[in-house]
Amino acid sequence: MKIGIDARLVVYRRGMGNFVHNLLAELAQIEAPHQYYLYVDTTKASEVLPQDERFTIKMLHPRFYPVWEQVSLPLQVKHDQLDILYCPANTAPIWLPSKTKLVMTIHDVMYMLPPTILPLSPSLYQQLGRQYRRWIVPRAARGAAAIISDSIYSKSDTIKLLALQDNQIHVVYGSHGSTYKPLDDAKAVLALKSKLGLFDRIIVGLGAIDPRKNTARVIEAFAQLLRSGYPYHQLVLIGLNAQAKARFSQQCQRLEIVQNVLMLDYITEEELVTLYNTAEMVVYLSLYEGFGLPVLEAMACGVPVISSNTTSIPEIAKDAALLVDPTSTTAIAEAMAQLAGDKLLRQSFIVRGYEQAAHFSWPQAAQKVLSIIEQVN
User: Fold this and answer.
1) 186-357 adopts what CATH topology?
2) How far apart are CA 103 and CA 97, in angstroms?
């Protein structure tokens, strides 16, 4: 078959970008007599894609997301005479040539929820993206030959909010990358601690200005932890741009915890793995997740995890994480104190975390995705 793949997000090493990166790397390892056309919008994307004689990389213009996806991509698909177009990152063209069947991965449908349930991000870019997906995804999904979901929870939500049939949607779990593991390199840990000014006891959180990521409540809970008898911990928040840092810095000043909070922008995957290995615990208290990949990444690195008891997280983490109500600051603070004060409890979650993370596999996920694509042809 001639299979096209929207590979734009391969350069973004978080969330859906990690999904695309790992999936393509594994597809390159599967012996299959197909031709793959990988469509990108930047030179950087083309440089990081896996090399394989079956892979043809094509850069399409303009980069403007809606035009690229709804005009440039369908026209190129027609030119390349594809049998299948696979869109792995929530959205897809609403028109394709009749010869070409669409397979898409819908990781979540949180953009379909009203602001009363899931508050709008203060970022105008994210708000516009949410409106774009609200309009495009239901239409693309109705024309898809098959849809892939990250979890049973996400599948259920997709059926409900997009009015689809159960047999249209297949569940394929993602996984953590092979680089996420315990490190024996004490020098790398010490170097990162020195570079960033890390405390001996750190709590790592993945933050964002989007209210869905619950960063403000995590900061509030951390302040409660410091006041409850644990004044020597440091909260390290990753993934905060300048706008987010300015907003959350004001909150830290108000709570008088500036000295105990370190805010970082995006860091390299190597630094993230080292940071996980340095942490006493990882907190991931998102209000809505279709999968929750950071939970598995942290578990695979051997660090206890506190996460949400809602949406897909219980399905992915099971009993290998300390699950709490993400809307309760007190519950989050109490969970932090539980882990901070009990070394045996931390160790039990480390052991369970290793076991749970081992249930997920990128080679297995890629094989399942390819099987779904082959079945619809």
Assistant:
1) Rossmann fold (3.40.50)
2) 14
